[in-house]
Amino acid sequence: MTVAFRPTPSVVRRDSGLYGYERALARRGLGPVAGVDEAGRGACAGPLVVAAVVLGRRIEGMNDSKVLTASRREALYERVMATAKAFSVVVIPPKEIDIRGLHRSNIEGMRRAVAQLSCDLGYVLTDGFPVPGLPVPSLGVWKGDQVAACVAAASIVAKVTRDRMMTALHERHPVYGFAVHKGYGTVDHRRALEMYGPCPDHRFSFATVARSGSGEVMGENEVGAGVA
Questions:
Q1: CA 186, CA 161: separation in Å to the nearest integer?
Q2: Is this prediction's pTM over 0.90?
């Protein structure tokens, strides 16, 4: 009788440190490990940005991008980009989000980001939920950007990339304050939507945008005219 071989399972404690997942997978011959995360999921304007990162070496101070100061995030971004074994960034514009839906766009963005990495992979860790259709084994990790270094790195790359894009959008549509709230539905953002209506960079499938005014799209010249 033939007995199927089953590898010994690994148990990774959530208090085993930010590099615990990568170490456990490497011991099982499942490296390199890519981390994948997105930024802008809850925003009602601007793109969804997905990043995938394979770390090249240990970086001290890595953490979830949302709990870092902007200056600390920028510094870690530069270190990740300078030392990563591989990284990729996928930008999904608002129109694609409106057509596909947010979650489908997120899943597709993660697949694209992994596919664009320039090195062979052994495993993928995604933040929060599993992603079917990846080319190697993968695991969705609850709060992965807080417990896995490669996911935290992807979180930082996605967040910094998107913040820079939203600051650039502020130059085109200054009345909305994108440089401050980065497209999220703050009180000031909702007030601007009520006053000026949405611009082409808003997500029209989102209730906050759909409820604003007549729902007509303002062109760049019209939006700019609202600035004293």
A1: 21
A2: no
